[in-house]
Amino acid sequence: MGRRGGQWKVKSWRSVEGGGWEGWKGSKQPLRSKEKKGEKKKKKEEVDQEKMEKKEEEEEKEEKMEKKEEEEEEKKKKKKEEEKEEEEKMEKKEEEEEKEKKKKKD
What we know:
The chain contains 1 helix and 2 strands. It has 106 residues and is mainly α.
């Protein structure tokens, strides 16, 4: 639909600084001050920085968790090794006792 009698159809609306809304033609761009663009850039940079900080924190947490898990695994391995050594010692003692008993019987 084109113009009729000098009137134009409102294709979109924009907010006015004083408050409220104002219609504008599709061919006209909404007014954006350079200050607003700068603010948007700053906000975007802040958001990006926050995201980076969050990622770093999450990575640090993951690294800590991995270190804890590795330490726990090492502790478990050490315990198992100690238990095996104790079992071997007990077996040796039992064998020695059996040999002594046999010698005493002979």
